[in-house]
Amino acid sequence: MSENEYLVLLSNLREEGTVQAQFFVAIFSAFIVAIYAVGKKLSTLYLSLLTVSYSLFMVTPITASYVAVSNITAVAASYANEYPESIVEHVLIPYL
Fold it and tell me: What is the rounded distance in angstroms from the CA atom of residue 84 to the CA atom of residue 47?
């Protein structure tokens, strides 16, 4: 893989990671707003069911964020091994 292809792939993976993080924050914020708005009106049973369903649903964005970060670090490590003298590697890798 050429150096340019590595950099494009890293850029795309970082963008995907950002989208996954935004997805996680949006769902978390929606849950907090929903609990704040209607939490006092719900019985303990419904509140527990809402919390359990939220917890089960959150597995997907958490896993997606983990996979995105894992992909970024794997590609960055591969890039660093293949192009050890690259100046981009020395600047990019610590920020991942």
Answer: 54
Q: What is the pLDDT of residues 48-74, one digit of tens each?
A: 888 888 888 888 888 888 888 888 888
CA 30, distance to chain mean position in Å, is: 17
pLDDT computed for residue 19 by the predictor: 87
- Rounded distance between C-alpha atoms, residue 90 and residue 95, angstroms: 10
Q: How far apart are CA 34 and CA 18, in angstroms?
A: 24
Helix ranges (DSSP H) in the chain: 3-38, 44-57, 59-82, 87-92
Residues 54, 62: Cα–Cα separation, whole Å: 12
CA dist., res. 68 & res. 74, Å (int): 10
Asked if 64 and 23 count as a contact pair (C-beta separation under 8 A), the reply is yes
pTM: 0.66
User: In the block, which residue shows the tokens 């209607």?
Assistant: 38
